[in-house]
Design a protein that fits this description.
Blueprint (H helix, E strand, L loop, with lengths): L1 H6 L15 H13 L9 E3 L2 E3 L12 H21 L2 E6 L3 E5 L5 H4 E2 L10 E5 L2 H18 L4 E6 L9 H19 L15 E2 L2 H8 L15 H15 L5 H15 L8 H20 L7
Parallel strand pairs: 3-7, 7-8
Antiparallel strand pairs: 1-2, 4-5, 4-6
Helix pairs in contact: 2-3, 2-5, 5-6, 9-10
Organism: Flavobacterium cheniae
Protein name: GSCFA family protein
InterPro entries: GSCFA
Length: 297
Amino acid sequence: MGEKFDYFKFQTTINPFGIIFNSVSIEKLIRRSIEKKKFAENDIFFHNDLWHCFEVHSELSNSDKDAFLESLNDLISSTNKHLSDSTHIIITLGTSWVYRLRQAQSDSDGVVANCHKVLQKQFTKELLSILQIEESLESIISLVHSVNPNCKFIFTVSPVRHIKDGFVENTLSKAHLIAAIHSVLNRKFSTSLELTTQNNIYFPAYEIMMDELRDYRFYTEDMLHPNQTAVDYIWIQFFENYISESQFGLMNDICSIQKGLKHRPFNPNTESHQKFLHQLELKIKTIQNQHPFIKFC
């Protein structure tokens, strides 16, 4: 879905710290970013020839310690700006199951975002309660509103099933997430500015996948992840209901340009193809003159 926003040239930042599945880890990173609390050497560790951080995804891991810390702290700065400037923040929760370091200094430090293939005996596995998830979500809203009071939240639950936890355990996990989100959205949520969650919403990606796209032809080969047909269908449900109709024309123009940029002719030297490229360039210039922030590769 993030790729869809990027394709249509929305001003977005997608998973700056990598994919994070649980609400506690998301809250921890948002708190770091809002408070500009930089990562230090005691926040990282060396394992399997790479430096890792339990708070971020393994795709950020690095063989160079200094470069790793620098990249993490650059993300703190950029994420702080994005959180302060964003009009909407979409938070997708994947699971209520978390892993906690056995030797953590405190409960808040214990929950990890990624185990980085560290031996399982160093962790305990637990299911976050509905109340724990609620508290994380409320904290996230409060933290962001402290620097960006007009920001709106869209919460959703990933339709990807975590069957490694077990079929029953996955259902329980998703139920905790859904119950917690609706509990937070349906109650008044006060901050120093006396804001409420009335402008925040729930997008039913999980329900669409489970109920409307229940056939396995909408899944990839692993029978767990939505395939492209399903992603496209969920995206249509999203933009038709949550994106202003005034933007549909611009989205169609951008889609036309994107398809043109991907076009590969049999013979690029023909007069007709050169005319096609010229028309495409004119379309791009027209869009960029009206919307300077839009850039095409």
